[in-house]
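Lecture 7 notes: from sequence to structure.
We start with the chain below.
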Amino acid sequence: MGVAHPRDQRGKPWTISTDLVVTQTIDGHAVREAINVKHALFDTSSSRFRALCSVEAAYHHERGASWRLCISKGLNTHWARNLSWLYPTADDFYRRGVSESDVVAQDKFLHALSHFHYANTIRDLCRHLTSASRLEPGMAVRAYRSLLATRQIWTNLNIFDLMEARPLDVQRNRYLR
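Predicted structure tokens for the same chain:
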């Protein structure tokens, strides 16, 4: 392919890794994007780094994926922290599914989301739902977390606390209806 594989100081091939490979379905086709994430303070102008990037990009392009470099200020953002809060729930869902009590709580949460507009925050909505629907403590929060983690509802993840989101800012995923 005309790209030389980089070598370490002893002349052996340098191992190149990709930070993220995102796969999503668009119009029924799996689309993959490889992403190399570097901190904003990292020197991306060095010739060695550019050589590594060209090999990484060629590798992914050869396999039908796009490739890009993403400059980040780190994973210390609200978005990253909220994603970290949601990940174990999504992982658990994809490994085990949901129980009947989870389905009941999720249905009640979705109903409350569209009917109780006087709640200022999701935390208020969950408190009201727990007392009004006699849900077990924590089930309303679990339902919210699970619905977000499985992308059945959407909200801005780049806020300080997902429980402080306004119910009007939480939307149902229109593609899952």
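Points to note: The first strand starts at residue 20 and ends at 26. The chain has a mean pLDDT of 88.
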